[in-house]
Write a structure and sequence with these properties.
23% strand, 36% helix, SAM-dependent_MTase, Rossmann fold, alpha/beta
């Protein structure tokens, strides 16, 4: 199966450049201009100036990450499987589905899941799961922030962070390993925006990458909401280029 997928991508132009990367030589984030080198050095400064430099650096890398994501979209199609973790109302689910790949989309918030279902209604290549994804399977409390007009803000619902002034509901949690296995084949692309649950998943993936069958993964990390995780994310960003036969981007904005 792995050989078939690799051959299929080769026929679709898998070695072409897209967003500054190739399948065989993925983009590595390096401070290659004077400004980027300055920002990279300044982010270690204490206080406001260090935080400001980090934000500016991440914004620049974030723009490149969007280009890289679009480059990978150009290489997948019918016969591939992709994962949308934290699908919310389906904006990226529809973008992934437009490639023709089979999209497995996970969204735990019931209000967001209704919107997601409406957004992709009629798309035969989308499978929806009203569940969260984390390092371990089980059941967890999903924290949601109430809106003054009624209902809940669904963008930042989290099984990790407490949304002050909100309420919570118990939701099913599927392990990342099982979410990959449900696809029944190696996953071409993973988009992950799961509000803090990514930390434990990433530690698992980087500790045993061969256990996880995917080609590329783009992750929005939330260390700004958990400053104690900053050192972890910085270390994983440095290690990402060395992961065997897969591309992991931790600068997704």
């Amino acid at each position: 199966m792995r050989r078939r997928l690799r051959d299929d991508r080769s026929r679709r132009g898998g070695s072409r450049r897209g967003g500054g990367l190739t399948r065989t030589a993925p983009f590595v984030f390096r401070a290659e201009t004077p400004l980027l080198r300055l920002l990279a050095a300044a982010q270690a400064w204490p206080g406001y100036f260090g935080r400001s430099a980090r934000r500016k650096l991440l914004r620049r890398y974030g723009r490149v990450s969007i280009q890289a994501f679009d480059g990978f979209l150009g290489r997948i199609g019918p016969g591939d499987a992709v994962l949308d973790l934290g699908a919310n109302a389906g904006v990226f689910t529809k973008k992934l589905a437009a490639t023709g790949a089979m999209v497995h989309a996970y969204e735990p918030d019931p209000e967001a899941f209704v919107r997601l279902s409406q957004a992709v209604a009629g798309l035969a290549n989308v499978r929806l799961y009203n569940a969260a994804v984390a390092a371990k399977a089980g059941s967890l409390r999903l924290s949601r922030k109430k809106l003054a007009a009624g209902g809940h803000q669904t963008v930042a619902s989290s099984i990790v962070f407490d949304n002050g002034g909100g309420d919570g509901i118990d939701v099913e949690v599927v392990s990342f390993y099982d979410a990959l296995a449900r696809c029944g084949q190696r996953v071409a692309l993973v988009k992950m925006d799961i509000e803090g649950a990514e930390f434990d998943i990433l530690e698992q993936v980087f500790a045993a990458p061969w256990d996880y069958g995917f080609d590329a993964m783009f992750v929005e990390t939330h260390e700004r909401l958990a400053p104690e995780k900053t050192a972890l994310i910085d270390r994983l960003r440095r290690e990402a280029a060395g992961l065997p036969q897969r591309y992991v981007n931790l600068y997704w904005p």
